[in-house]
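Narrative of accomplishments. A recurring question from our advisory board has been how the design workflow behaves on a single, concrete structure rather than in aggregate. To address it, we present the structure tokens for one chain from the evaluation set, followed by the sequence designed for it. No filtering or post-editing was applied between the two.
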């Protein structure tokens, strides 16, 4: 018996997502497949598996990521799902090799990956906005025509839309940055 659950977790909520998946496992629902906002569970023995959500350093098809994922498989850890550069891992709870305790270094590493991803995303948006604005200025020197007017309008709309997205995402970027600061502080004050 399987069931599909559609649920949204933001990038910085990976701990919450991981806890939810493990709670489902404790209730007897084992994650077997993932997608964008989609989790497929199979009925099983409660607590049979322990899950971990991890963000890969590089693209999941890169040599480094493939090598790391092969290493995990060799240690008995299964990859049950992927979504972009996120991988969903599991191992049998009785023989699990996941660190069950407090993981300050692991959390910091994850947060730094998220921070890097959000910075890259913001940079891409800013570059696109700059390209659109440059395109608008260049098109000002062309003779008005339906194609030129459409392109200027498209560039204007696209740049405005991306600017709004950046403004709306700023609190989330700030939240990731604050979590990184807290994680670093925790590393130095952790006993």
């Amino acid at each position: 018996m399987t069931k599909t659950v559609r649920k949204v977790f933001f990038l910085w909520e990976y701990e919450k997502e991981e806890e939810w998946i493990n709670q489902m496992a404790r209730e007897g629902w084992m994650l077997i497949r993932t997608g964008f906002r989609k989790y497929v569970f199979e009925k099983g023995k409660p607590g049979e598996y322990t899950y971990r959500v991890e963000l890969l350093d590089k693209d999941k098809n890169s040599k480094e990521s493939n090598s790391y994922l092969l290493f995990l498989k060799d240690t008995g850890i299964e990859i049950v799902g992927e979504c972009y550069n996120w991988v969903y891992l599991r191992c049998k709870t009785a023989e699990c090799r996941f660190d069950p305790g407090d993981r300050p270094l692991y959390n910091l590493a994850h947060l730094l990956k998220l921070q890097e991803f959000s910075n890259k995303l913001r940079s891409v948006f800013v570059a696109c906005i700059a390209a659109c604005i440059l395109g608008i200025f260049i098109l000002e020197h062309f003779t008005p025509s339906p194609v030129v007017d459409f392109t200027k309008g498209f560039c204007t709309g696209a740049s405005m839309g991306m600017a709004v997205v950046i403004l709306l995402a700023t609190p989330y970027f700030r939240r990731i940055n604050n979590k990184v600061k807290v994680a670093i502080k925790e590393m130095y004050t952790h006993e």
